[in-house]
Each structure stands twice: as structure tokens, then as C-alpha cells.
Amino acid sequence: MRINDDLTVPVIIHAAQLPWKTSPAAGVDRRMLFRIGDEVARATSIVRYAPRSAFPRHTHGGGEEIVVLDGVFQDEHGDYPAGSYFRNPPETSHVPASNDGCTIFVRLWQFREGDRDQIVRRPAEGRPLQPRSGAARAIELFDDGFENVRFESWIAGRTVAIENPRGLEALVLAGSLSIGDQMLAPQSWIRLPAGEPLRAVCGPDGAEVWVKDAPLLHPDVCRMP
User: Fold this and answer.
1) Quick one: which of 134, 146, 176, 191 could link to 203 by a disulfide (CB 3.0–4.6 Å)?
2) Which domains does the chain have, with CATH numbers?
3) pTM beyond cutoff 0.90
4) Concatenated DSSP letters for 134-172?
């Protein structure tokens, strides 16, 4: 399966408008944003857990990066409420579940071979940064020199510009923004190849945005089986 696999072209996906697709686990559905592969795949998705649903124990051979969008995501290591961010590096394993239901944004098989940092950031945790023009707040979630990941709060009515020397992804978490003639609501996902700057105008309620500054696929990305 291949979905939005041409990394040389800009992509904007209004994920909230996509149909849910079933996964192999009962009660776990997904909206696929990017995919190369079948059940084992390089993938970026919105995943919904119904109440009392779980995914069987599995090992992340290529790593897993997650933002909890609503509800409480859980595994045997703890509970992660909306606004949590974490990274499970290659060869870690867990049993993901949700007692009350949740929605997450997840990236699979997109870690570098040498990335072994396990990171857990609960809501509001991270390193405060000087916000860029048009933003009120910025929190750095992760930076290893190869990628920078942050949450940003953008101000209503303001224009936000992000230069993009190595690749950029962004997900609207709350509020809205517009890029050209497209209005982006929560769960809208942006992927821009290196050299394509982001220019966005925030909606009347501002916007909360997850931003990743990194190559869209690392040259030493983990090899898939």
C-alpha cells in the first residue's frame, strides 16, 4: 500500500474528513495520511481507540512517535492524557490500550538507525522556547540535532512563517489556520519538502500546532524487514 509516498511534493490532508479504516485490532481504527507498506509500514496516521480497546503486544522495529489528541492513551507503563507526546525508539515494545477511548497521531518506522532516545512529555512538559513571530508560546519536546519537535500556540489573526531548510511536518491540534485558500481544522496535517516554507494565517481562535523540523525521511532511516 502506498499513500502520499512522493516526498518531493507538498501535502495538506484534512484528516477529520477522511473515513475511518479498521485495523487488525477490534475497536482500533485509523485515518491513513502517509504509508509505504502493508501492516508493517512506514506510516503516519490518526488512530482512534474505542473504550476498552487494546492492541496486542508488539515491538516497534522502526520506532514510534505519538501525540495524544484526545482522551487518555495507556500502556503498561502509564497513562498519557491529551497533550502528551512520546517517542518509543526501535526495539521497544508495549501493549497500547485505552479504557475510556482516545485519539492519537502516530508515526511508525521513521526513526533513524541510531536514535535510541525514549522520551515522555506529559501536557505542558518540555523546554520553553522564545516563540517565533505570530506565536504566543513554544515548547520544545525533542531535539537531537537531526530533528526538532515542538508544540506552538499561534495568535489569532496573525501570520506565521517558518523557513524550511530540511523538511517540515505540522498537525493542527486545536483552533484553525489557513494556507492559501485552504482552511485547516484540527487533525489537518501538513508535510512540506525542504525548501518549501510554511506561510499560515491563524483563525479567530488562534491555533495549537505540533511542528516537526526534520528530513521527511532520514537518510539512515531504520530498514524495514
Assistant:
1) 176
2) 2-113 (2.60.120.10), 127-213 (2.60.120.10)
3) yes
4) TEEEEEEEEE-SS-EEEEEEEPTT-EEEE--SS-EEEEE
